[in-house]
Design goal:
Distance between the termini: 38 Å
Shape: globular
Number of strands: 8
Radius of gyration: 14 Å
Strand content: 15-25%
Structural class: alpha/beta
Largest sheet: 8 strands, mixed
């Protein structure tokens, strides 16, 4: 079961989107140098379809995207919530920030409009660093994924 600790409206996680970022706990990745160590614990409230509906309704037309920050302990549940959002709110995009290096199998990458992959490696930096190992992909209309990481490099 996914649990979330908090959420916020953010403008930098997904380029060109006003994003409702939902921080999911119980992260199994435990990256050294992680800036969100509080998400390592199994804490927070269950993240259900009803909770997602409530958050989306709370922000109405203010958001263009929902991004799950974590959820690596249960990727199938993240996929299920993404599919729910796409079905219920077809105008919203959905992203997933995963600490995994590769898409988990079986996995439905088509469930996401944006997908960030890669553990945080302190010496390489995060997405804003040109030396990062992390990658942010955007799903194209034909289903392919385009690496848009360079959008973070100023």
């Amino acid at each position: 079961m996914l649990k979330f600790v908090n959420f916020d409206i953010v403008f930098q996680e997904i380029p060109d989107e006003v994003t409702l970022a939902v921080n999911i706990s119980n992260c199994p990745c435990r990256c050294e140098g992680c800036h969100s160590r509080y998400l390592w614990e199994d804490a927070g409230e269950p993240l259900t379809e009803e909770v997602v509906d409530g958050l989306v309704k709370m922000y109405g037309g203010e958001i263009t995207c929902v991004c799950f920050m974590g959820g690596d302990a249960d990727p199938e549940a993240v996929v299920s919530l993404s599919c729910h959002i796409h079905e219920r709110y077809p105008d919203l995009k959905v992203g997933w920030y995963s600490g995994r290096s590769h898409v988990p199998e079986p996995f439905f990458e088509q469930a996401f409009d944006y997908l960030k992959l890669g553990p945080y490696v302190e010496t390489l930096g995060g997405l804003s660093s040109p030396s990062t190992n992390q990658r942010l992909y955007r799903r194209e209309p034909d289903g392919s994924l385009t690496d848009i990481t360079e959008r973070f490099w100023k």
